[in-house]
């Protein structure tokens, strides 16, 4: 059987120091239950999130690289198809 995790040991030590008051100090809304409460939502209009300028500058290289990868994979796929016809 494995050892206790560090988090579990730290909680146990804190509980011993506090005299068992650790469970009392946690608010009821922070205690997680097995089944999440699902509340009905009102129909909200669909709004697309605005892309911030920081994200646009951070990920500006992704589309050209994906295009490059797609071209290379397409060429290799065509080469494989040609080779199957030539070698068989």
Q: Give the CA-based shape.
A: elongated
Indicate the low-confidence ranges by residue numbers.
Answer: none
Structural class: mainly alpha
Question: Number of DSSP helices?
Answer: 4
Strand segment tally = 0
Name the average pLDDT: 78
Largest sheet: none
Helical percentage: 40-55%
Could you spell the SSE succession in H and E letters? HHHH
Whole-number radius of gyration?
Answer: 28 Å
- Distance linking N and C termini: 58 Å
Strand content: under 5%
Task: Summarize the structure in words.
- By secondary structure, this protein is mostly helical.
- The protein has a domain at 58-88.
- 55% of the residues lie in helices and 0% in strands.
- The chain contains 4 helices and no strands.
- The protein has helices at 6-17, 22-25, 53-58, 62-87.
- 0% of the residues are buried.
- The mean pLDDT is 78.
Keywords, separated by commas or semicolons:
88 residues, mainly alpha, 4 helices
Outline:
With 88 residues, the protein is mostly helical. Helices cover 55% and strands 0% of the residues.
């Amino acid at each position: 059987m494995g050892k206790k995790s560090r988090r579990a040991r730290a909680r146990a030590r804190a509980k011993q120091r506090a005299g068992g008051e650790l469970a009392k100090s946690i608010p009821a809304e922070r205690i997680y239950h097995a089944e999440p409460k699902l509340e009905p939502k009102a129909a909200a209009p669909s709004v697309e999130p605005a892309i911030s300028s920081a994200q646009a500058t951070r990920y500006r290289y992704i589309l050209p690289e994906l295009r490059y990868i797609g071209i290379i994979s397409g060429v290799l796929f065509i080469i494989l198809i040609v080779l199957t016809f030539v070698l068989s």
